[in-house]
Amino acid sequence: MPSLDDLKKRISSVKSTQKITKAMKMVAAAKLRRAQESAEKGRPFSERMNNIILNLSQSISDKESASKFLVGTGKDKVHLCVVITADRGLCGGFNTNICRKAKSYFEKILKEGKTLKILTVGSKGNDQLKRAYNNYIIDKISFKGMKKVSYKEAENVGNKIIDLFNDNQFDVCKIFYNKFKNVITQIPQEQQIIPIESLKKEEDKKSENFYEFEPDETEILENLLPRNISTQIFKAILENAASEQGSRMTAMDNATRNAGDLVDKLTITYNRSRQAAITKELIEIISGAESL
Amino acid sequence: MESDFKVEIISPEKIIFSDNVKMITFPSYEGDMSILKGHISIITFLRPGIIKVHKSDQNTIDFFVEDGTVEYFNDSLVILSASAINLKDITKEFLEHLSREAQEQLKKENITDQERYILNHKLDTIKEKEFKLS
């Protein structure tokens, strides 16, 4: 049985933890609004980009000579996985969910006897993955200390991937990130960016648009596809930022509530043991008086 | 108006411009290009230069771009560019920084003719703007 003093200390310590989690929740809520806004603002760009590439790839007649980014190297040997996570913890299952998704994919790749290469963006993912897959990690990028990640950073990551690809370092590239659905749900995503996943069949009917190209299709594609990679990465980073804040908000909300429950429980124990002590003293006095 | 069509200039971070306009002139890769309503569907990309948006005969808005992609389809024009910036917001320092960067890149030996072409255009545009600003 802890003493009254111990209980008192514990109650006050839980209360101060609660204050911290509450503050973190507020901060996350404010940041979430901003992050969500910029994720939504970023969507039109990547959607349009996809649209243009869709139209372009359909009007390309000669698939053989098409860009490597579109059709791939023709091999399926080396997989590059870009795992995009947050730089900070205390956001519930956010980082773990991405890593779990990525790990199950890694296992599949390794089982099939293919070569795995990992590029981590964000330090938390690197921390989690280096325990089991340190040998596969070829590079890590972190935006720690940066207030806001802009397109420039995404472009740097994209250029790194493109350089590796031009160097024939890998055949297939996938990115892992969390898609922001709403504050309580974030869905871990796996998206293939090189070669571009075979575009949906149902959109075939749209291919009746005839475009004029200047210069020709292949040249535009050569110019556009590398840019598309940076765009996809930037989209993933924006979605991730919104998801991180959402996830942190829910996690901190839960923590605040749990702390409240704990304080209630401890207060009851405290009151009970105080009452028990009083009762004990009373009994001692009464039985002492009776024996006289 | 009847001869208006929709123009959107979109950067990865936000929609920079979205309105109905009469005509737009932009520096396409192979030369300047103007588009009016009813143009054939076209996809092209940009070299560094100035986009001129003519909202009406007198009212024009200028944007500086370094690169980008243009799609015109069904009377709606979309410019995707990571570097579009309204000419009014451009400062002299920004231009100087750009011009220094471009000059450094030009000095490198391993650049292709294509890159040289783009960089030279960039420098030309910058110089012209610097002249106007000063």
The CATH C-level class name of the largest domain in chain A: Alpha Beta
Percent of residues in beta strands of chain A: 5-15%
Count of DSSP-assigned helices of chain B: 2
Main β-sheet description of chain B:
5 strands, mixed
Strand-and-helix sequence of chain A, N→C?
Answer: HHEHEHEHEEEH
CATH class value of the largest domain in chain B: Mainly Beta
Low-confidence segments of chain B = none
Number of strands of chain B: 10
Euclidean distance between termini CA atoms of chain A? 33 Å
Low-pLDDT ranges of chain A: none
- Work out the helix count of chain A: 6
CATH topology of the largest domain in chain A: Pyruvate Kinase, Chain: A, domain 1
Share of helix among residues of chain B? 25-40%
Number of domains of chain B: 2
* CATH H-level homologous superfamily name of the largest domain in chain B: F0F1 ATP synthase delta/epsilon subunit, N-terminal
Shape of chain A: elongated
Rg of Cα set of chain A? 28 Å
Beta-strand portion of chain B reads 35-45%
Structural class by sheet pairing and helices of chain B: alpha+beta
Side by side, the strands of the main sheet of chain B go: 2-1-9-8-5
Summed up, what is this model?
Chain A is an alpha/beta fold and 292 residues long. In chain A, 61% of the residues lie in helices and 14% in strands. The model of chain A has no long low-confidence stretch (mean pLDDT 86).
Written overview of the protein:
The complex is a heterodimer of chains A (292) and B (134). Chain A has 292 residues and is an alpha/beta fold. Chain A folds into two domains: 4-22 and 252-285, ATP synthase, gamma subunit, helix hairpin domain (Helix Hairpins), CATH 1.10.287; 32-249, ATP synthase, F1 complex, gamma subunit (Pyruvate Kinase, Chain: A, domain 1, 3-Layer(aba) Sandwich). In chain A, 61% of the residues lie in helices and 14% in strands. Chain A has helices at 4-59, 68-71, 94-111, 123-133, 151-166, 217-290; strands at 78-84, 115-121, 137-141, 172-180, 186-194, 212-214. In chain A, α1 packs antiparallel against α6 (217-290). Chain A is elongated. The mean pLDDT of chain A is 86. Chain B is of the alpha+beta class and 134 residues long. Chain B has two domains: 5-86, F0F1 ATP synthase delta/epsilon subunit, N-terminal (ATP Synthase, domain 1), CATH 2.60.15; 90-133. Helix content of chain B is 28%, strand content 40%. Chain B is built from two helices and ten strands. Chain B has helices at residues 92-107, 113-133, and strands at residues 5-10, 15-21, 23-28, 31-35, 42-46, 49-54, 60-65, 68-73, 76-80, 85-86. In chain B, the strands form two sheets. A five-stranded mixed beta sheet of chain B has the order 2-1-9-8-5, with no helix packed on it. In chain B, strands 4-3-6-7-10 form a five-stranded antiparallel beta sheet. In chain B, α1 (92-107) runs antiparallel to α2. Chain B is globular and about 50 Å long. The chains are: A alpha/beta (292), B alpha+beta (134). The A-B interface holds A 38, 41-42, 44-46, 48-49, 51-52, 55-56, 150-151, 154-155, 209-215, 220, 223-224, 227, 231, 234-235 and B 8, 10-15, 28-30, 33, 40-45, 69, 71, 73, 78, 80, 82.
